[in-house]
Amino acid sequence: MPTSKILPYDVIIIGAGINGCTAAYYLSQAGLNVAIVDKTGIAAGGSGAAGAFISPKFHKQGPLKELMDEAYAEAMTFYSTVLASQTLLKPLLHISQDDSEEPIYLEHSAIVDARSACESLAHGIDFYLLDVQSPTYHDNQWHCEDLQSTYLVLTIGAYPKILPIDYVGLRGIWGHRIDVTTSTDVPHIYHQFVSISPTMKEGVIAIGATHDVHYSPFDSSATYDIESGRTLLLENAAKTLKLNNIIILKDYMGLRSGSNDYMPMLGSLVDTEATLALHPHLQHGKAVDPKEFVYYPKAIMINGSGGYGFVLAPYLAKRLKEYLVDEIAMDETLSPSRYFPRWAKRKKG
Ligand SMILES: Cc1cc2nc3c(=O)[nH]c(=O)nc-3n(C[C@H](O)[C@H](O)[C@H](O)COP(=O)(O)OP(=O)(O)OC[C@H]3O[C@@H](n4cnc5c(N)ncnc54)[C@H](O)[C@@H]3O)c2cc1C
Hints:
alpha/beta, FAD/NAD(P)-binding domain
Protein backbone atom coordinates (compact mmCIF):
# COMPACT_ATOMS: atom_id res chain seq x y z
CA MET A 1 0.00 0.00 0.00
CA PRO A 2 1.48 3.42 -0.90
CA THR A 3 2.30 5.54 2.13
CA SER A 4 2.39 9.31 1.93
CA LYS A 5 5.38 11.05 3.38
CA ILE A 6 4.61 14.02 5.61
CA LEU A 7 6.62 17.12 4.75
CA PRO A 8 6.94 19.29 7.89
CA TYR A 9 7.42 23.08 7.77
CA ASP A 10 7.26 26.00 10.17
CA VAL A 11 5.08 27.94 7.70
CA ILE A 12 3.04 27.04 4.62
CA ILE A 13 2.26 30.06 2.45
CA ILE A 14 -0.62 29.56 0.02
CA GLY A 15 -0.36 31.88 -3.00
CA ALA A 16 2.87 32.74 -4.81
CA GLY A 17 2.12 36.34 -5.78
CA ILE A 18 4.11 39.32 -4.50
CA ASN A 19 2.59 38.99 -1.02
CA GLY A 20 3.34 35.26 -0.69
CA CYS A 21 6.83 35.52 -2.18
CA THR A 22 7.84 38.56 -0.08
CA ALA A 23 6.49 36.91 3.09
CA ALA A 24 8.39 33.71 2.22
CA TYR A 25 11.56 35.74 1.66
CA TYR A 26 11.33 37.56 5.02
CA LEU A 27 10.43 34.44 6.98
CA SER A 28 13.11 32.23 5.47
CA GLN A 29 15.70 34.99 5.96
CA ALA A 30 14.69 34.93 9.64
CA GLY A 31 15.47 31.20 9.79
CA LEU A 32 11.99 29.66 9.42
CA ASN A 33 11.45 26.60 7.27
CA VAL A 34 8.95 27.80 4.66
CA ALA A 35 6.95 26.14 1.87
CA ILE A 36 5.23 28.16 -0.85
CA VAL A 37 2.22 26.58 -2.54
CA ASP A 38 0.44 27.79 -5.66
CA LYS A 39 -2.13 26.16 -7.91
CA THR A 40 -0.71 27.65 -11.11
CA GLY A 41 2.82 28.87 -10.51
CA ILE A 42 4.82 31.83 -9.28
CA ALA A 43 3.25 35.22 -10.13
CA ALA A 44 0.31 33.51 -11.84
CA GLY A 45 -2.30 35.89 -10.38
CA GLY A 46 -2.60 39.67 -10.26
CA SER A 47 1.11 39.98 -9.46
CA GLY A 48 2.19 38.66 -12.85
CA ALA A 49 0.06 41.30 -14.59
CA ALA A 50 1.16 44.28 -12.53
CA GLY A 51 2.99 47.30 -13.89
CA ALA A 52 4.46 47.29 -10.40
CA PHE A 53 5.10 51.00 -9.94
CA ILE A 54 6.46 51.96 -6.56
CA SER A 55 4.91 55.28 -5.69
CA PRO A 56 3.13 56.78 -2.67
CA LYS A 57 -0.53 57.71 -2.58
CA PHE A 58 -0.86 61.28 -3.74
CA HIS A 59 -3.13 63.66 -1.77
CA LYS A 60 -6.01 62.47 0.44
CA GLN A 61 -4.64 62.78 3.99
CA GLY A 62 -5.54 60.23 6.64
CA PRO A 63 -4.50 56.84 8.04
CA LEU A 64 -4.29 55.20 4.60
CA LYS A 65 -2.01 57.95 3.29
CA GLU A 66 0.20 57.65 6.41
CA LEU A 67 0.45 53.87 6.01
CA MET A 68 1.17 54.20 2.30
CA ASP A 69 3.92 56.77 2.89
CA GLU A 70 5.64 54.39 5.31
CA ALA A 71 5.14 51.42 2.99
CA TYR A 72 6.45 53.40 -0.01
CA ALA A 73 9.65 54.34 1.89
CA GLU A 74 10.20 50.71 2.95
CA ALA A 75 9.44 49.46 -0.57
CA MET A 76 11.95 51.83 -2.21
CA THR A 77 14.68 50.54 0.11
CA PHE A 78 13.62 46.90 -0.29
CA TYR A 79 13.41 46.81 -4.10
CA SER A 80 16.54 48.89 -4.68
CA THR A 81 18.63 46.67 -2.41
CA VAL A 82 17.13 43.15 -2.34
CA LEU A 83 15.87 43.24 -5.94
CA ALA A 84 18.22 45.77 -7.55
CA SER A 85 18.47 43.89 -10.83
CA GLN A 86 14.65 43.70 -11.16
CA THR A 87 14.10 47.37 -10.30
CA LEU A 88 14.37 50.44 -12.52
CA LEU A 89 14.70 53.66 -10.52
CA LYS A 90 13.03 56.56 -12.37
CA PRO A 91 11.47 59.88 -11.40
CA LEU A 92 7.68 60.07 -11.64
CA LEU A 93 5.49 62.92 -12.88
CA HIS A 94 2.03 62.77 -11.28
CA ILE A 95 -0.57 64.89 -13.09
CA SER A 96 -4.11 65.22 -11.71
CA GLN A 97 -6.82 64.07 -14.11
CA ASP A 98 -8.74 67.35 -14.11
CA ASP A 99 -5.68 69.65 -13.95
CA SER A 100 -7.07 71.06 -10.68
CA GLU A 101 -3.77 70.56 -8.86
CA GLU A 102 -0.18 71.36 -9.65
CA PRO A 103 1.72 68.38 -11.12
CA ILE A 104 4.01 66.63 -8.65
CA TYR A 105 7.50 65.62 -9.71
CA LEU A 106 8.71 62.77 -7.51
CA GLU A 107 12.46 62.23 -7.74
CA HIS A 108 12.43 58.77 -6.13
CA SER A 109 10.16 56.26 -7.74
CA ALA A 110 10.57 52.87 -9.42
CA ILE A 111 9.08 50.23 -11.65
CA VAL A 112 9.69 46.59 -10.77
CA ASP A 113 9.80 43.65 -13.18
CA ALA A 114 6.89 41.90 -11.46
CA ARG A 115 7.34 38.30 -12.50
CA SER A 116 11.11 38.08 -12.08
CA ALA A 117 10.85 39.89 -8.73
CA CYS A 118 8.49 37.19 -7.42
CA GLU A 119 10.69 34.43 -8.84
CA SER A 120 13.81 35.92 -7.31
CA LEU A 121 12.17 36.25 -3.86
CA ALA A 122 11.01 32.63 -3.98
CA HIS A 123 14.36 31.34 -5.19
CA GLY A 124 15.75 28.59 -2.92
CA ILE A 125 12.45 28.22 -1.01
CA ASP A 126 10.51 24.94 -1.37
CA PHE A 127 7.69 25.39 -3.90
CA TYR A 128 4.73 23.03 -4.49
CA LEU A 129 2.26 23.17 -7.35
CA LEU A 130 -0.96 22.41 -5.48
CA ASP A 131 -4.58 23.60 -5.67
CA VAL A 132 -5.46 23.81 -1.98
CA GLN A 133 -9.21 23.30 -1.51
CA SER A 134 -9.55 23.48 2.26
CA PRO A 135 -6.58 23.32 4.60
CA THR A 136 -7.28 21.50 7.88
CA TYR A 137 -5.95 21.97 11.39
CA HIS A 138 -5.42 19.04 13.73
CA ASP A 139 -2.74 17.82 16.15
CA ASN A 140 -1.54 21.44 16.47
CA GLN A 141 -0.59 21.52 12.81
CA TRP A 142 -2.01 22.83 9.55
CA HIS A 143 -2.32 20.23 6.79
CA CYS A 144 -2.43 20.71 3.02
CA GLU A 145 -2.25 17.23 1.53
CA ASP A 146 1.23 15.92 2.50
CA LEU A 147 2.46 19.28 3.74
CA GLN A 148 2.11 20.23 7.39
CA SER A 149 3.13 23.31 9.31
CA THR A 150 2.79 25.22 12.54
CA TYR A 151 1.61 28.39 10.75
CA LEU A 152 -0.56 28.92 7.71
CA VAL A 153 -0.31 32.15 5.73
CA LEU A 154 -2.99 32.87 3.12
CA THR A 155 -1.96 35.17 0.28
CA ILE A 156 -4.46 34.14 -2.40
CA GLY A 157 -5.52 37.60 -3.59
CA ALA A 158 -8.92 37.81 -5.28
CA TYR A 159 -9.29 34.03 -5.74
CA PRO A 160 -12.15 32.06 -4.10
CA LYS A 161 -11.69 31.69 -0.35
CA ILE A 162 -10.41 28.39 1.02
CA LEU A 163 -11.55 28.89 4.62
CA PRO A 164 -15.13 29.87 5.61
CA ILE A 165 -14.37 33.57 6.14
CA ASP A 166 -17.26 35.20 4.28
CA TYR A 167 -17.01 38.28 6.47
CA VAL A 168 -13.80 39.26 4.68
CA GLY A 169 -15.20 41.41 1.89
CA LEU A 170 -12.85 41.61 -1.09
CA ARG A 171 -13.50 43.16 -4.49
CA GLY A 172 -11.80 41.84 -7.58
CA ILE A 173 -10.70 44.73 -9.81
CA TRP A 174 -9.71 43.55 -13.28
CA GLY A 175 -6.74 45.28 -14.86
CA HIS A 176 -5.20 45.25 -18.34
CA ARG A 177 -1.87 46.76 -19.33
CA ILE A 178 0.36 46.57 -22.39
CA ASP A 179 4.02 46.71 -23.31
CA VAL A 180 4.69 48.71 -26.47
CA THR A 181 7.48 50.18 -28.55
CA THR A 182 7.22 53.79 -29.71
CA SER A 183 9.50 56.26 -31.47
CA THR A 184 8.61 58.86 -28.79
CA ASP A 185 11.07 59.35 -25.94
CA VAL A 186 9.60 58.53 -22.50
CA PRO A 187 12.16 59.92 -20.05
CA HIS A 188 10.33 59.21 -16.80
CA ILE A 189 7.17 57.64 -15.41
CA TYR A 190 3.93 59.53 -16.11
CA HIS A 191 0.85 58.94 -13.94
CA GLN A 192 -2.40 60.51 -15.08
CA PHE A 193 -5.33 58.61 -16.67
CA VAL A 194 -2.99 55.63 -17.04
CA SER A 195 0.73 55.23 -16.41
CA ILE A 196 3.28 55.53 -19.21
CA SER A 197 6.72 54.34 -18.28
CA PRO A 198 10.07 53.01 -19.44
CA THR A 199 10.72 49.46 -18.25
CA MET A 200 13.69 47.20 -17.45
CA LYS A 201 13.54 46.05 -21.07
CA GLU A 202 15.48 48.42 -23.35
CA GLY A 203 13.09 50.36 -25.64
CA VAL A 204 9.94 48.83 -24.10
CA ILE A 205 7.32 51.21 -22.69
CA ALA A 206 4.60 50.03 -20.28
CA ILE A 207 1.10 51.53 -20.53
CA GLY A 208 -1.45 50.66 -17.87
CA ALA A 209 -3.60 49.82 -16.33
CA THR A 210 -7.37 49.75 -16.70
CA HIS A 211 -9.70 49.35 -13.67
CA ASP A 212 -12.79 47.24 -14.31
CA VAL A 213 -14.93 46.16 -11.37
CA HIS A 214 -17.52 44.43 -13.58
CA TYR A 215 -15.42 41.79 -15.33
CA SER A 216 -14.21 38.69 -13.45
CA PRO A 217 -12.52 35.60 -14.90
CA PHE A 218 -14.35 33.58 -12.21
CA ASP A 219 -17.69 34.37 -13.84
CA SER A 220 -17.96 31.67 -16.49
CA SER A 221 -20.37 33.66 -18.67
CA ALA A 222 -17.86 36.45 -19.19
CA THR A 223 -15.26 36.86 -21.92
CA TYR A 224 -12.86 39.75 -21.80
CA ASP A 225 -12.59 41.98 -24.87
CA ILE A 226 -8.85 42.54 -25.29
CA GLU A 227 -9.26 44.91 -28.24
CA SER A 228 -11.47 47.34 -26.34
CA GLY A 229 -9.03 47.20 -23.41
CA ARG A 230 -6.16 48.12 -25.73
CA THR A 231 -8.16 50.97 -27.26
CA LEU A 232 -8.98 52.37 -23.83
CA LEU A 233 -5.32 52.20 -22.76
CA LEU A 234 -4.06 53.96 -25.90
CA GLU A 235 -6.78 56.63 -25.77
CA ASN A 236 -5.98 57.37 -22.14
CA ALA A 237 -2.23 57.43 -22.75
CA ALA A 238 -2.71 59.88 -25.65
CA LYS A 239 -4.39 62.38 -23.29
CA THR A 240 -1.05 62.69 -21.46
CA LEU A 241 1.57 62.16 -24.16
CA LYS A 242 1.47 61.78 -27.96
CA LEU A 243 3.17 58.44 -28.60
CA ASN A 244 4.20 57.91 -32.23
CA ASN A 245 4.59 54.64 -34.17
CA ILE A 246 3.21 52.42 -31.43
CA ILE A 247 3.58 48.66 -31.76
CA ILE A 248 1.88 46.55 -29.08
CA LEU A 249 4.21 43.80 -27.90
CA LYS A 250 2.34 42.09 -25.09
CA ASP A 251 -0.87 42.20 -23.02
CA TYR A 252 -0.98 41.53 -19.28
CA MET A 253 -4.25 40.99 -17.44
CA GLY A 254 -5.17 40.10 -13.90
CA LEU A 255 -7.25 40.76 -10.81
CA ARG A 256 -6.32 43.12 -8.04
CA SER A 257 -7.89 42.33 -4.70
CA GLY A 258 -9.30 45.41 -2.99
CA SER A 259 -10.71 45.76 0.52
CA ASN A 260 -13.93 47.64 1.21
CA ASP A 261 -12.17 50.36 3.21
CA TYR A 262 -9.07 50.47 0.96
CA MET A 263 -6.80 49.50 3.87
CA PRO A 264 -4.77 46.32 3.34
CA MET A 265 -5.28 43.31 5.59
CA LEU A 266 -2.73 41.58 7.77
CA GLY A 267 -3.95 39.48 10.65
CA SER A 268 -5.52 36.41 12.17
CA LEU A 269 -8.76 34.95 10.86
CA VAL A 270 -11.97 34.74 12.85
CA ASP A 271 -13.62 31.33 13.14
CA THR A 272 -17.12 32.65 12.47
CA GLU A 273 -19.08 29.63 13.70
CA ALA A 274 -17.19 29.31 16.99
CA THR A 275 -17.32 33.06 17.61
CA LEU A 276 -21.07 33.30 16.98
CA ALA A 277 -21.68 30.30 19.24
CA LEU A 278 -19.71 32.02 22.03
CA HIS A 279 -21.12 35.52 21.41
CA PRO A 280 -24.58 35.09 19.82
CA HIS A 281 -25.49 38.68 20.78
CA LEU A 282 -23.04 39.86 18.08
CA GLN A 283 -25.94 39.16 15.73
CA HIS A 284 -27.98 41.77 17.56
CA GLY A 285 -25.27 44.35 17.06
CA LYS A 286 -23.80 44.13 20.56
CA ALA A 287 -20.16 45.19 20.68
CA VAL A 288 -17.61 42.52 21.60
CA ASP A 289 -13.91 43.18 22.03
CA PRO A 290 -12.13 41.56 19.03
CA LYS A 291 -9.79 39.91 21.57
CA GLU A 292 -12.84 37.84 22.62
CA PHE A 293 -13.43 36.49 19.10
CA VAL A 294 -12.35 32.88 18.39
CA TYR A 295 -9.59 32.79 15.79
CA TYR A 296 -8.28 29.97 13.65
CA PRO A 297 -5.07 28.93 15.37
CA LYS A 298 -1.93 30.31 13.77
CA ALA A 299 -3.57 31.26 10.47
CA ILE A 300 -2.79 34.70 9.08
CA MET A 301 -3.93 36.46 5.96
CA ILE A 302 -2.33 39.16 3.84
CA ASN A 303 -4.69 40.61 1.26
CA GLY A 304 -6.70 43.63 0.10
CA SER A 305 -3.81 45.73 -1.24
CA GLY A 306 -5.80 46.80 -4.32
CA GLY A 307 -3.60 48.59 -6.86
CA TYR A 308 -0.71 48.92 -4.39
CA GLY A 309 0.30 45.29 -3.78
CA PHE A 310 3.92 45.83 -4.78
CA VAL A 311 4.19 48.97 -2.65
CA LEU A 312 2.66 47.30 0.40
CA ALA A 313 4.17 43.78 0.19
CA PRO A 314 7.54 44.52 1.88
CA TYR A 315 5.81 46.48 4.67
CA LEU A 316 3.26 43.72 5.36
CA ALA A 317 5.78 40.88 5.08
CA LYS A 318 8.11 42.60 7.52
CA ARG A 319 5.26 43.03 10.03
CA LEU A 320 4.38 39.35 9.61
CA LYS A 321 7.99 38.37 10.29
CA GLU A 322 8.06 40.65 13.38
CA TYR A 323 4.92 38.92 14.65
CA LEU A 324 6.00 35.33 14.04
CA VAL A 325 9.67 35.66 14.94
CA ASP A 326 10.03 38.67 17.26
CA GLU A 327 6.58 38.33 18.91
CA ILE A 328 5.61 41.93 18.10
CA ALA A 329 1.82 42.30 17.95
CA MET A 330 0.28 42.98 14.56
CA ASP A 331 -1.45 46.32 13.96
CA GLU A 332 -5.10 45.77 14.96
CA THR A 333 -6.32 48.35 12.48
CA LEU A 334 -5.15 46.07 9.65
CA SER A 335 -6.84 42.97 11.06
CA PRO A 336 -9.41 41.32 8.75
CA SER A 337 -11.53 40.88 11.91
CA ARG A 338 -12.55 44.56 11.54
CA TYR A 339 -15.23 43.39 9.09
CA PHE A 340 -16.61 40.66 11.32
CA PRO A 341 -19.09 42.50 13.64
CA ARG A 342 -20.94 44.13 10.72
CA TRP A 343 -21.09 40.87 8.81
CA ALA A 344 -22.41 39.04 11.91
CA LYS A 345 -25.17 41.62 12.37
CA ARG A 346 -26.18 41.54 8.70
CA LYS A 347 -26.11 37.75 8.68
CA LYS A 348 -29.03 37.72 11.08
CA GLY A 349 -31.09 39.99 8.81
C1 LIG B 1 -2.92 45.22 -14.32
C2 LIG B 1 -2.45 45.45 -12.92
C3 LIG B 1 -1.57 46.50 -12.65
C4 LIG B 1 -1.09 46.70 -11.34
N1 LIG B 1 -0.20 47.70 -11.10
C5 LIG B 1 0.34 47.84 -9.85
C6 LIG B 1 1.34 48.83 -9.59
O1 LIG B 1 1.74 49.57 -10.48
N2 LIG B 1 1.85 48.92 -8.33
C7 LIG B 1 1.43 48.10 -7.32
O2 LIG B 1 1.93 48.21 -6.20
N3 LIG B 1 0.46 47.16 -7.54
C8 LIG B 1 -0.09 47.03 -8.77
N4 LIG B 1 -1.07 46.11 -9.00
C9 LIG B 1 -1.65 45.41 -7.84
C10 LIG B 1 -0.83 44.23 -7.43
O3 LIG B 1 -0.45 43.50 -8.55
C11 LIG B 1 -1.66 43.36 -6.48
O4 LIG B 1 -2.03 44.12 -5.36
C12 LIG B 1 -0.82 42.18 -6.04
O5 LIG B 1 -0.44 41.45 -7.16
C13 LIG B 1 -1.55 41.28 -5.07
O6 LIG B 1 -0.68 40.20 -4.83
P1 LIG B 1 -1.12 38.92 -4.04
O7 LIG B 1 0.15 38.17 -3.81
O8 LIG B 1 -1.92 39.30 -2.85
O9 LIG B 1 -2.14 38.15 -5.01
P2 LIG B 1 -1.94 37.45 -6.44
O10 LIG B 1 -0.79 37.99 -7.17
O11 LIG B 1 -3.25 37.49 -7.12
O12 LIG B 1 -1.54 35.95 -6.05
C14 LIG B 1 -2.45 35.02 -5.55
C15 LIG B 1 -1.91 33.65 -5.89
O13 LIG B 1 -2.66 32.68 -5.15
C16 LIG B 1 -2.79 31.53 -5.95
N5 LIG B 1 -3.94 30.78 -5.44
C17 LIG B 1 -5.21 31.21 -5.33
N6 LIG B 1 -6.00 30.27 -4.81
C18 LIG B 1 -5.20 29.19 -4.57
C19 LIG B 1 -5.45 27.89 -4.04
N7 LIG B 1 -6.68 27.52 -3.65
N8 LIG B 1 -4.41 27.03 -3.94
C20 LIG B 1 -3.17 27.38 -4.35
N9 LIG B 1 -2.90 28.61 -4.86
C21 LIG B 1 -3.90 29.52 -4.96
C22 LIG B 1 -2.99 32.06 -7.36
O14 LIG B 1 -2.66 31.09 -8.34
C23 LIG B 1 -2.07 33.27 -7.38
O15 LIG B 1 -0.79 32.96 -7.91
C24 LIG B 1 -1.54 45.87 -10.29
C25 LIG B 1 -2.41 44.82 -10.57
C26 LIG B 1 -2.87 44.60 -11.88
C27 LIG B 1 -3.80 43.46 -12.14
